[in-house]
Design goal:
By secondary structure, the chain is of the alpha+beta class. Helix content is 59%, strand content 12%. The chain has eight helices and six strands, in the order αααααβββββααβα.
Amino acid sequence: MDRSLLFFYGLFIVFMGYYAWKAKKQRVLTSTLLQLAALVTSMILASLFAESGTGTWWIIVVVINFSLLAGGMILFLGIKFRRGKKQFQAAHNIIKSQGAAGLNMLLHDEFNHRLDWQVIYLPEQNTLEIGANIYYQKWVLFKKYYLRTLSGRTVYFVPDLLLVEVDLSRNGLYALDMFVRHSKETAESVRHYADAIKSGVNQPWMLVDEEQQQQQKR
């Protein structure tokens, strides 16, 4: 057998072993299978342009494989974002028409399982907002976490601490159901915000209005 073919088959076996180990060890079977499919497809397509196992063939394999993975990732993220945006709009329409009653549906209906709803609580800015992770972004400490709010804004929050319970003395990002269950005060703030959205007030909810702020300063 030709040495180039021996090298090709040997390298192919190594690739197969690596992807099998990765799928088992890291438990990412779907992504591993997609990467493997892209690699095999690249090898097949490259064989149409150059002899298998040659330097030119490997260059073509790398280029095609990278293009397939990059294109697939862009398509996948685009589909996820479109789906998230559609689910967000459906939930927003309910809040817009029903206010706090619609928010209760958000907490107990299937919408809560489709999107990750968060409360952006900022006592230092005297504001509160509710947003959804329509970008399917992973929550990471000290990294910008983007949300689409019910007021129609795209905002970000940089978490600096893993909060396991609601702390009303500091800025924080909390799961919607966790924040509502915390106390009567937090539940009322969320309901007021939802009713304000229903009334067409597309801005963050003021935790303390101007009159109350003036009274507190006296």
